[in-house]
Structure formats: structure tokens, C-alpha cells
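Quick question, first post here. What does this chain look like in 3D?
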Amino acid sequence: HRLSALGEGARAAHVDAAQARDAVHALMRAQREASERGGRMVSAVRASASDLADGAARAQGVAAALQVTLGDLESLSRSADEIREFAALVRKMARQSKLLALNAAMEAARAGEQGSGFAVVAGEVRRLAKSSTEAADRTEALVADVMSRAERSRLGTLEGITVLETTHGRLARVIAALRETEREWQVTASASAVAA
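> Answer (accepted):
Ran it through. C-alpha cells below.
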């Protein structure tokens, strides 16, 4: 009876050992599959981090180009101010020309028939003064339009720079998190490989 009990115990131990062996193989298979999935995830994370780094670099390049554009707009603004000063000078010369024309007309009237040449000159100076005033007005209107557009462009450029810099910062944080996740997966995969 003892022998049969020992035989049954041995058979049960053998069955238990076989089940344990099968469980270990299943566990190793699951661990290998998990390791492979982890390796694929590490590759995907690495590719995502690389893509995001490229995007961040492009965003930074666009921000730099917008900085150059901003400098150009500020230069344009300075040039427009110089044109405005020139238009003011033309307007001042037109006012002086009007006074000169008025004085020439008065002298022509005082001189009578002998001042007819003065009258012709006074008329031409008056037309020149009128044309100069109109040119100054048109120049100032054009400069005001250019300045308005340049200011809108400047504000849009500043907003674009801010958005790109913010985006770059966020991308940098995401890239750092992805790289940290990649390192953690590599450590886990290495530990799984050693355990297998």
C-alpha cells in the first residue's frame, strides 16, 4: 500500500512538474512576446521623438525667419518715417511757393503792363505750389497706408514668433518625455532578456 501511495505521489509530482514546466514555457513565451512588443514600442517612440525633433527644428527655423522679417518691417517703418519727413519738407516748400506767387502777383499788379512777365511767373509758381501740395498729400496717404500694413504685419509676425516659440518649447518637453519612456522600455526589455 505504501508503494502504491508512493507511486501515486510520484505520478502526481510528475504531473505537477509537467504543469509547472508548461507554465514556465508559457510565461517565457509571454515574456518574449512582451519584450518584442516593448522593442516595437521603443522603435515607435524613437521614431516619434525623431519626427517631433525635426518638427521642432523646423518651427525654430520659421521663428528665426520671422525674426528677420520683423527686422525688415522695422527697417521699412524707419524708411517710411524718412519719406514722411520728406513729404513735410515738400509741403513746407509748397507753402513758401504760394507766398512767393502771391508776392509776385502783387508786384505784377503794381507794375502794371510792365509786370506782365511777373504775372506769368506768379501763375506758374502758384501751379507748382498746388502740384507740390497734392504730391505731398498723396505721399503722406501712401506712407500712412504702408505704415498701417507694416504694423499689421509686424503684429502678425510677433504673434507667429510667440506661437512658434511656445510650440517649440512644448515639443521639446514631449521629446524629452518620449526619450525618457524609450530609456525605461529599453531597461525593461534588457531585464526581460536577461530573465529569459
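The CA atoms of residues 34 and 100 lie 97 Å apart.
The chain has two helices and no strands.
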